[in-house]
Amino acid sequence: MKGKKIMAVPTACFIGVCAVCLIGIIVGSFCDLSINKALANKTNIGSFFATFGSYFSYCLYPAAGMCIYKGLRKKGSGYNMLAWVLLVVGYFMAVYYTNSYSGVKLREMLGYTAGESSPLLSVLCWGLAAVIYIWVPIVCNFLLDDADADKLIAVGAAILIAGIAADNVNLWLKQVGSRPRFKYLITLDDPDGSFRNWWQMVPYLAGSDDNFKSWPSGNMTIATMMFSLPMLADVCKKRSMAKNIVCFALACAFVVLYGYNRIHMTNHFLTDVCFGTLITYIIYSVISTAFLKAAENKK
Questions:
Q1: How far apart are CA 206 and CA 14, in angstroms?
Q2: Is residue 274, in this structure, part of any structural domain at all?
Q3: How far apart are CA 207 and CA 227, in angstroms?
Q4: How does pLDDT run across 107-154, given as a tens digit for each residue?
């Protein structure tokens, strides 16, 4: 695995993702509204994927927690408590984000109505989210190679920190941009007249109104987490660059599908999708490179 790598794949992969995002931003800057008019068409399967597709990305949080756990345990019994705490933190982040972004649908499935249903149904929703992630740390415990404890810790910490950082940067930018969503525009008498390009920002107009939180796409921040899959593959047993590339290709396919879904479901414009992907990818790349370089310097 010689040669410079970013997130465990050749630099050319990083450049390729950034180039595609930039092309999408340029095209969308001129054609955002027309693209949405052509592609937007809500469907049941699209709605299901929009709600629950994030599950695959959130699996990376407990996986990251297990990376840190195994790395710290390898360092000695003095790190045991810290290892357990960070494992729980990684697991909790997956459950927390699932309830924050998909919790409404989960509670609907369970028949929960706020103010009417038993609070136990809400607790059950959290329990269900906890159960669906239980397999991740178990499987990772068998797949991860603890031969290089520092690298394991670096990968796990990078995924956790970059994920939280990207989510908060996205929330801040949504307020800065305060761009109307397409699904809101089509409810107006003059959608074209109320449309705003991504650079026509009205900072903090959005407030708590989700209709003005189109740019950048938060779901693409979630989807772009999948680009850390090659890093996980790189700390597994029987690792190889070929496996890393396969993981990168799977991440690309997932991100493209997710991006199309955001436009198709009238939630975002092309530039929202591309900015959400690009910003998150750069955050992950910078943080993971910093952590992995620090781990290498310790050898």
A1: 32
A2: yes
A3: 31
A4: 888 888 888 888 888 888 889 989 999 999 999 999 999 999 999 999
